[in-house]
Amino acid sequence: MAMPHIGTVLLYIALVFSIWAVILVLQSKSGARRAAILSVIAVTSVTAVLVRAFLSNDFSLAYVANHSDRQLPLIYKISALWAGQEGSLLLWLLILSGLAVIIHSLPRYRTHRLDLKLSIVVHAVRIFFLMLLLFVTSPFRTLEYVPSNGSGLNPMLQSIGMVVHPPILFLGFSCFLVPFAIVIVKLICRSKSMPWLELSQPWVLFAWTMLTAGIVTGGQWAYTELGWGGYWAWDPVENASLFPWLTATALLHGYVLPPGKQKNLWCSTLIVATFVLTIFGTFLTRSGILDSVHAFTGGLLGWFFLGFLVLLIGFSGYLLIMRRRLLVDETGLSTDAYSWTGKGRMITFSNVILLLILIGVLLGTLAPLLTRLLLSREIALDQGYYNQVAVPLFLVMIVLMGFAPVLDWSGASWRQVGQRLAVPVTAALITLITALIHLEHSLMGLILAIGTFAGCTHLQGFYLYVAENIHDRQPGFLRRLVRRAGAYLAHLGIVVIMVGVAGSSLFNQEVYVTAAAGDSIAIGGYRLEYSGLDVKWGNFDYQVSTTLQVSDAKQHRGEVTVTKTFGQDLRQPATDIGIFSTFREDLYVNLAGWDHEHAQVHVQLFPLVRWIWTGAGLIYLGMVAVMLSQARLWWGKDRSR
Q1: Most buried residue, 47, 213, 277, 293, by CB count within 10 Å?
Q2: Rounded CA gap, 617 and 151, in Å?
Q3: Is 191 helix (H, G, I), strand (E, B) or coil?
Q4: Please, are residues 118 and 26 in contact by the beta-carbon 8 Å criterion?
């Protein structure tokens, strides 16, 4: 049997066993887990078949012919699996299938057949993806005429960033399905004893971490590959990943609220909203209704996602409204937690700010569509709109984040709050005054002051916590200490990213020059010596590159090389941007064009870009610590607070 037929048959097998697993669960019959595993095996086999088609250069498949060629390196032949619409859906389905296996494998989910109930929701989503791959956009569509070679992979996708970014992002999207399933099962089964918060929390922690990593790696790819010098452009596809990140961030803070009605309503609503927004973002990127350099071409697929989205919103919204009393827990801490000096009120305010950012970014993203419908003409909002709406709100959120460590759950007195704020406020004022004296941009001074304030409150808060509890011998203290350290480290990562974004946005410089061999380019205290072009011809491509020597006023600092690689079709070249990076700033060099020995060189200077990637690293480290401290939630009840 030909490879395309094998792949299609396996998709049908996966669909049949998924439906059969759901039927067995609904009829309370045995064998549902075996049917689920067989479906997962079929999906895994489908993926293996498509990968083999890429590795064997099977250009009878349209998907392989459109995204690969014989000269493509091995690692990119594998990553070409998710380079297009059909393959990315298959990757997403594979990850969802892995979640089904994990749910069935974890002991605590097998209690009272909970794994089978959750699997109905997971299989419902898997069935939707399987039907899309079978009847709407098949990766096994064949060509009548088989070309001798493929079209090749888009040069911009031939990077390590595109090897890791999509799988990480899809993993983050997918893992939000499990908390969604937990809430839906609780409401459908009318279960009052189901510990849905404990069951969903570790999934949210992991999913948020992966989604954050997916967004950051996407920014790194854009920065190093696209050549425009940025890492975030408020593009609709970028915003589509930000939507669920904002609600998931609010959700993480909802989990630390004191037990009670407010916590339950926050968490249940945000869990549903986060998963719905992952589908909404997919609809935006695959429907073609919005223009984006990252989006897939339009077609029927986006409208199937729209139908699925409407169904999700209607079904889950009905359950949340009609059965909301099942989520209400009247027990909990004193209402002092929500006093003006209580930590609960501060967290609630932070969540409101996050939702306001979501609304602002959502309206900006949909502006072309809304104006097209209401005004019969399309108005697209530029980065200025997002900077005016989102940046002030983000700064307010950082300020609120800085207040959290100085507040108590029981409500601290104003005198206590004042004493705890003395050092951070003093440090922030000193930073502000110093920055206003030495920097040209007052906004940067304000941002540095806010960052100093938030950083100091967290460092001070952790020091005081350790000092007050160092002799604590109660079980679970070490776990609580690690959890707090991880949360504070993640918050510090957000602060560092904020400073990096501000520095790279407010103080960037650029020059655009036409240089001959021996000319030098001056920018920001650096001097770049241009020595000419180097052209290399290969069997199927050719490269044009130049290496510039980098010096400052004191010494030679190194060199930076920028390369343009043209494939055999001489279409859009692959660009290897030249980046000379220090912790303070990045020299960003792009070869914009050339004429014989003259080259058009675009040089930009971006301060503090490495701070962004460092801040992301702090977030990853902090979240790993938090997840390790919460490891018991995967297996049993964690009774420590």
Answers
A1: 277
A2: 37
A3: coil
A4: no
